[in-house]
């Protein structure tokens, strides 16, 4: 009985591997293509072939040099700073706010919750000009404040996400803690936060790469080149009315998604069932 | 198993035996927790929000000053702006197909990937790649390589004998929007991860109990996974609806609204009017219209959620 | 006692801040431009050179790619935070001028502060909008037709001459297609810019806009109808991209033109400073010539234009220093050598002469072409009206409808006129 079961499992596994591997190619095709493009000689970066005409790393060297003496090490550093701060801040503040919405009661709760949901519906383009005028009046131009603060304080996407997950945590746990003499803050730190690990990882991954990729906000508020993040730098290769160095641009784009991928691969174990508890027992 | 979206009950409904002191304490606690959000909202959102509402009643060229014109922008939009109606139609069509496709793909792959098998770590990351690339140049070029007249999709259809001449799927008015819908379905990484996190939260004891009762995999899926996942499904549905309603970059880089405005999604039209042409007042009016539409859609989803979303507690 | 300390501290602080104020009398100018890697490198070198020569002026570079550049400039303008010096294009400039966001340079031009010696008047005038000077041209550009010499030889067809007419051009594209079995060209004229049609209208003795930019500047819709019928004729012959193929490639840019893959023998109407990009992607030198003439044309419709304009914003606190920078940009030989032809062919004759001496093959071809284009250029284009982008969008809308055969050229002429006039009247 147990032998035939493992056979079936093995067959399942093989089918799974074949299907997933085939589809995997479709999924990462653009990345492979970009990688190939970054290794081609500069004039050929846009051809359709996946196999580059030799291994040509000059695009990386040329690209890394950056612009007018500002190399990509600066842009990477800035991006790590911005995305790192935004992620840490966001995780803390939005889980805090979500706990407030999901597990405490106060006057005006419904209204505030509705307002929060409503703010996710606003097209960003509309807020841009008034926001700019406001930050300009506050003297925040060319500083990281307008780029960082709004991304460190709770944004509706994450707050709502965490509200949904907190509601899935049995409230008996809260009650038990209350009886043990915990106050609300104690419940947040001792009960809710440890149980939020998967969603914190999810939110952390999202916040990191959304901030990492965000182009318009830093473009509007940062003026000094040494403060630019990588998202702006990547577009500084391109001028449709003159020459675009596609090879260098693809090379730097490939490098720029490495941190996101590494973070994803490193943290994803928190997203899934551990090996021990999955079907190994048969 | 009562439905508890209405978890946010008014204080008035709280038990009368609770003393006034306790009520004050509860309120203080509540406000302390939502304080970061409240600060963010008051500092960064409220003023721009009100300003854009004000702008929507003005004629405001981006290079000039706002000038009050009352309802004129709204009247023009509703009565004479053909492109507005076109973009609404395009956007609705897009959302109706793209959201379910993306969510279905995300859920299917999350189910497939929730167990640790050899190489799944690698695959999960690989399946996430298209979403990371988002709206980059690579995506636009690759999409053209796939669905352009010289594209691989045509090669496949030709070799299967399904078509006898090459079709430009991106350049043909009736098919262009479908290439964008497919792109949306293909970039299912974000909801997939949210689903994975949701699946992880379901207690394993439930599955073990079901197994002992002899439930099949499918029964486990429909009776345990889906009901317990409804808060997350609800979240993904709402958020993806909003995201795709306001989808901009993909349409901007691949079709730029063409051919013949058949992919002119709402956010793209808003961007053109408000930013490219500099009609900030008109653009703000367009934004408030979509805000109202989305709010209505959201309220409907929230109302129906009482019937199908299950909350623990 | 404590009061005394406090007061003396305050006094000290005041004195300190004053001395700092005096010591740091260095003027800082913000300079904003768009470009790609090569241009950023060149510009930064020029800025370094400038700061060496003028130690009391500090240039703060604020550069980006093309994508997002205008969003940023527009937002900065709305916030009253424009950089002191802004790289501009002539087609977008009218709105900024109309709302007085740019500094009127005419007084500085008259008293000689803005030095235009060795620059031909016609080129100085490129920065002139409605009778006032608002900028200086970084260099000269002209619309250009590129062709693959090898493919022409293979087809046994002689190279296109600047004297050919539109009919010749149509015949040429068809013939190349017949002989080579590839596209004659990707298209006859561009759909995304009114470039082709503008020239056509001028050749008919009209202009796209009337003098004050409040309506279209041609009366006879037959002009539009003829132009679109010619376009449809080429389209139907299969010698150029079909409408859907054009749509899918509408924004792909010069590096992906079929001429770079030997899939077309010509590329019509790019700018002259794009030769480098085309040659780089095709892997071989290309020929370059002017747009066609009109048979029995009433006026010379072809034109030169400033590649970009350097403008000074109206809210600058240091107009004199900003103009010092413009003068340096225009006249300094070393700076000219660094900048090369990246922002068009230099307007200053001495700088141009030095550059010409040791120009690369590509630059040499561009220099020669600009001379050819200048010899075949009519009046400078009037400044486009503030609603330019909207008119172009309306033009494009109608253009697509005609080539997708949704409407006839006659209906198109009427629709474009109605839409354009309504936009221009209400801007």
From TrEMBL, chain A:
The record gives the membrane topology as: Multi-pass membrane protein
Transmembrane segment boundaries:
12-36, 80-99, 111-127, 147-166, 187-210, 246-267
GO biological process terms, semicolon-separated: transmembrane transport
Gene3D superfamilies linked: MetI-like (1.10.3720.10)
Which InterPro entries does the entry link to? Answer: MetI-like, MetI-like_sf
Q: Which PROSITE patterns match?
A: ABC_TM1
Where this protein primarily resides, as one coarse class?
membrane
Annotated GO CC locations: plasma membrane
Q: Give a yes or no for keyword Transmembrane helix in this entry.
A: yes
**CDD domains in the record:** TM_PBP2 (cd06261)
Can you say where in the cell this protein is located? Answer: Cell membrane
Q: Which residues form the ABC transmembrane type-1 domain?
A: 76-267
Q: Which UniProt keywords apply?
A: Cell membrane, Membrane, Transmembrane, Transmembrane helix, Transport
The family line of this record is: Belongs to the binding-protein-dependent transport system permease family.
**What protein does this entry describe?**
ABC transporter permease subunit
What organism is listed for this UniProt entry?
A: Iocasia fonsfrigidae
From TrEMBL, chain C:
- Protein name according to UniProt: Extracellular solute-binding protein
Gene3D superfamilies xref list: Periplasmic binding protein-like II
Q: Enumerate the UniProt keywords alphabetically.
A: Signal
Q: Which InterPro entries match?
A: Bact_solute-bd_prot1, SBP
Keyword Signal listed? The answer is yes
Organism of origin: Iocasia fonsfrigidae
What span is annotated as the signal peptide, if there is one? 1-23
| Any matching Pfam family | SBP_bac_1
* Membrane-spanning intervals of the chain: none
């Amino acid at each position: 009985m147990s032998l035939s079961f493992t056979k079936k499992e093995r067959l399942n596994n093989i089918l799974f591997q074949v299907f997933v591997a085939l589809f995997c190619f479709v999924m990462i095709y653009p990345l492979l293509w970009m990688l190939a493009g970054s290794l081609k000689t500069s004039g050929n970066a846009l051809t359709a072939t996946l196999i580059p005409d030799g291994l040509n790393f000059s695009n990386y060297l040329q690209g890394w040099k950056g612009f007018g003496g500002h190399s990509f090490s600066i842009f990477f550093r800035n991006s790590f700073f911005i995305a790192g701060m935004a992620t840490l801040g966001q995780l803390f503040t939005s889980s805090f706010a979500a706990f407030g919405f999901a597990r405490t009661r106060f006057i005006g709760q419904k209204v505030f919750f509705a307002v929060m949901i409503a703010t996710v519906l606003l097209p960003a383009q509309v807020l841009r000009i008034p926001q700019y005028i406001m930050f300009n009046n506050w003297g925040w131009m060319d500083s990281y404040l307008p780029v960082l603060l709004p991304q460190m304080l709770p944004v509706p996407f994450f707050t709502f996400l965490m509200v949904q997950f907190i509601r899935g945590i049995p409230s008996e746990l809260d009650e038990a803690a209350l009886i043990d003499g915990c106050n609300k803050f104690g419940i947040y730190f001792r009960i809710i936060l440890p149980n939020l690990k998967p969603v914190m990882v999810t939110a952390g991954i999202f916040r990191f790469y959304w901030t990492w990729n965000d182009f318009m906000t830093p473009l509007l508020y940062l003026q000094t080149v040494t403060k630019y993040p990588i998202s702006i730098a990547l577009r500084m290769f391109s001028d449709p009315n003159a020459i675009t160095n596609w090879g260098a641009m693809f090379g730097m784009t490939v490098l720029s998604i490495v941190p996101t991928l590494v973070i994803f691969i490193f943290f994803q174990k928190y997203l899934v069932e551990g090996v021990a508890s999955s079907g190994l027992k048969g | 198993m009562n439905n508890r979206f209405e978890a946010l009950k008014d204080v008035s409904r709280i038990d009368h035996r609770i003393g006034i002191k306790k009520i004050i304490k509860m309120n203080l606690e509540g406000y302390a927790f939502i304080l970061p959000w409240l600060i963010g909202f008051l500092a960064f959102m409220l003023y721009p929000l009100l300003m854009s509402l004000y702008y929507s009643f003005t004629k405001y060229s981006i290079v000039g000053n706002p000038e009050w014109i009352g309802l004129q922008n709204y009247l023009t939009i509703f009565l004479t702006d053909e492109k507005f109606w076109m973009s609404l139609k395009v956007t609705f069509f897009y959302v109706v197909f793209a959201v379910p496709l993306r969510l279905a793909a995300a859920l299917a792959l999350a189910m497939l990937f929730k167990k640790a098998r050899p190489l799944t770590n690698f695959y999960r990351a690989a399946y996430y790649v298209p979403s990371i690339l988002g709206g980059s140049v690579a995506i636009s070029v690759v999409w053209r390589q796939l669905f352009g007249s010289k594209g691989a999709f045509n090669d496949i259809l030709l070799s299967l004998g399904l078509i006898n001449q090459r079709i430009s799927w991106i350049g043909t008015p009736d098919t262009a929007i479908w290439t964008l819908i497919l792109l949306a379905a293909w970039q299912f990484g974000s909801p997939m991860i949210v689903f994975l996190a949701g699946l992880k939260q379901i207690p394993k004891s439930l599955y073990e109990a079901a197994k002992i009762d002899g439930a099949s995999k499918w029964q486990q899926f429909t009776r345990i996974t889906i009901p317990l996942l409804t808060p997350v499904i609800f979240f993904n549905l709402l958020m993806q609806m909003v995201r795709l309603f306001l989808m901009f970059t993909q349409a901007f880089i691949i079709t730029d609204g063409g051919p013949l405005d058949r992919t002119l999604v709402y956010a793209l039209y808003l961007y053109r009017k408000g930013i490219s042409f500099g009609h900030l007042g008109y653009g703000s009016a367009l934004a408030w219209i979509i805000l109202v539409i989305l709010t209505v859609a959201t309220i409907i989803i929230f109302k129906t959620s009482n019937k199908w979303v299950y909350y623990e507690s | 006692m404590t009061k005394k300390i406090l007061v003396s501290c305050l006094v000290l602080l005041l004195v300190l801040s004053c001395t700092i104020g005096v010591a740091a009398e260095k003027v800082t100018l913000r300079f904003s431009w768009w470009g790609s890697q090569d241009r950023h490198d060149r510009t930064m070198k020029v800025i370094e050179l400038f700061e060496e020569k003028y130690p009391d002026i500090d240039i703060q570079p604020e550069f980006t790619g093309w994508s997002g550049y205008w969003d940023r400039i527009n937002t900065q303008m709305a916030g009253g935070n424009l950089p002191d010096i802004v790289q501009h294009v002539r087609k977008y400039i009218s709105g900024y001028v109309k709302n007085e966001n740019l500094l009127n340079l005419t007084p500085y031009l008259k008293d000689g502060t803005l030095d235009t010696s060795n620059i031909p008047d016609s080129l100085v005038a490129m920065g002139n909008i409605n009778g006032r000077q608002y900028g200086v041209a970084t260099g000269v550009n002209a619309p250009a037709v590129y062709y693959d010499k090898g493919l022409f030889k293979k087809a046994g067809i002689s190279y296109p001459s600047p004297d050919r007419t539109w009919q010749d051009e149509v015949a040429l594209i068809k013939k190349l297609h017949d002989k080579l079995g590839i596209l004659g060209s990707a298209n006859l004229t561009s759909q995304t810019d009114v470039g082709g049609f503008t020239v056509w209208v001028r050749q008919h003795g009209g202009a796209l806009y009337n003098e004050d930019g409040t309506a279209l500047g041609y009366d006879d819709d037959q002009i539009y109808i003829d132009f679109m019928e010619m376009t449809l004729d080429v389209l139907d012959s299969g010698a150029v991209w079909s409408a859907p193929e054009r749509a899918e490639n509408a924004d792909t840019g010069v590096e992906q033109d079929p001429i770079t893959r030997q899939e077309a023998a010509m590329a019509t109407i790019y700018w002259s400073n794009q030769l480098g990009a085309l040659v780089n992607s095709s892997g071989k030198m290309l020929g370059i010539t002017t747009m066609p003439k009109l048979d029995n044309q009433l006026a010379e419709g072809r034109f030169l234009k400033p590649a970009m304009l350097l403008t000074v914003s109206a809210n600058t606190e240091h107009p004199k220093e900003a103009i010092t920078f413009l003068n340096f940009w225009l006249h300094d030989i070393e700076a000219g050598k660094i900048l090369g032809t990246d922002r068009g062919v230099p307007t200053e004759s001495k700088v141009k002469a030095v550059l010409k001496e040791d120009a690369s093959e590509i630059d040499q071809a561009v220099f020669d072409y600009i001379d050819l284009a200048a010899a075949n250029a009519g009046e400078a284009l009037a400044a486009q009206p503030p609603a330019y982008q909207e008119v172009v969008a309306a033009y494009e809308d109608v253009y697509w409808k005609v080539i997708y055969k949704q409407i006839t050229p006659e209906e198109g002429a009427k629709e474009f006129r109605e839409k354009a006039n309504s936009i221009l009247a209400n801007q």
